[in-house]
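User: Batch of two.

Assistant: Item 1 of 2:
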Amino acid sequence: IAEKKYTSSFLPVVGALTLSELVFKIFKLKRIYSQIRSDNKRAMRFNSLFGYKRAEGEEGKESQIHYLTSESFFKATRKFFLLLKPLGFNTGNLVITLEPHDYQTDFGDKMEKLILDSGMNFKCEKHDGLTIFREAGG
């Protein structure tokens, strides 16, 4: 989130939740990494709320590696999904929209394959040039 007026809003939380859920559920990554300056306490607090842990041997370094596993993410963020549920942001309601320009390269086709191969239950709709995958029953 580049614009200052949004950094203290709920948008960074929703963005981090959505991207992490996508990374773990669709891309099937087991672990993701973040590099944070040791003097950036705000970023460290933000990441720890999502379940990030500092990697071993990073103590005392100016720039530290932190990691997040799918297990620690879903355990740590259960409360966020409950708080954001009234706004429509809850796990089990993942919606992925692919636009026509996504298919101008092989991104759209590769993303569709990842979604379909994820083992998750998605319904696919196509209209107005969009391909929309909605998680069913999550």
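Item 2 of 2:
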Amino acid sequence: RIREALGAVPMGTARPVDLETPVYPEIKGDEAVVFAENFTDQGGALVYCEDADAAVRSLQELVSENGWDDQIYCADEEVRPLLEIASVRFAGKPLDAVLKKVGICSCRALVAGEGSVIFDSGSGGRRVLAHAETMVFVATTQQVMPDLHAAMRQVVRNRSGSSLFVWTGLSRFLDIDEGLMPGLGPKAIYLLLIDNC
């Protein structure tokens, strides 16, 4: 019956796939501002830093205010110098990821339209995302892309890890009795956004 049904369908009636027409709405205004609004709407906490020195101070304040002393895991070679300059203690061995509450890693791109963060396993993000209660991303305003298509093109060109991850909001699920409840993964997301323009 399946063979007969497939034979009965007229061939060649499908329209050609349009790969040129944009599928994402156009970003109006500054992409970094649009990203910041969408990121915070998704439940992230954005910390804007004017330069690398401000990022060091902001990181020190986050660690102090949240009591993260000796609770940080970072395997990302790009972020480690920032932690060392800030005199923040961190662990970097793979097994330490299970024991630490806070994970810090860099991003590969930021998506303005959705407020998403793209990172990869090369930054140690996969291990951190699975175990950390809090995630801290470090990125620059130059990494902000208007949409997911542009961001993926950027990431594929500069890819360093074996797998990619897209964070778009805190994980939640709906319980029949209790309403919206926290889901799997980190309970808090911070982004240190360094303005390097």
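DSSP finds seven helices and eleven strands in the chain.
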